[in-house]
Amino acid sequence: MPQTDSVSLSVEKIIDLIRIVRNDLIKDFLNDDFLTSYYENKYDKTLSSVKREFLKRDLKELQMSSVDLVHYARLINHVKETGTFSLLAKNSDFFYWELECILEKYMV
User: Fold this and answer.
1) pTM (2 decimals)?
2) What does the pLDDT read at residue 5?
């Protein structure tokens, strides 16, 4: 996980850091065992192999997509104001929100 000390960060660098953290998290979810375990614990439902493959496809698409600047605007502003970036519990919600949106599509 990228960690920077208090320095002046450009918006582009902040977006790059967000992309790195997001994509690292997605990589975890692309692991079959991790994805299945997370899904089953979070939603108390069994994840079929077919749903898992569709989920992984959607996660790969998210991984290749650009960072949602509207969604991450508050985090970007926070990093600009403080000059620090870390994946604290309050910031992890930003990253998990995108993943939860995808996972919830397959709860049926």
Assistant:
1) 0.83
2) 45
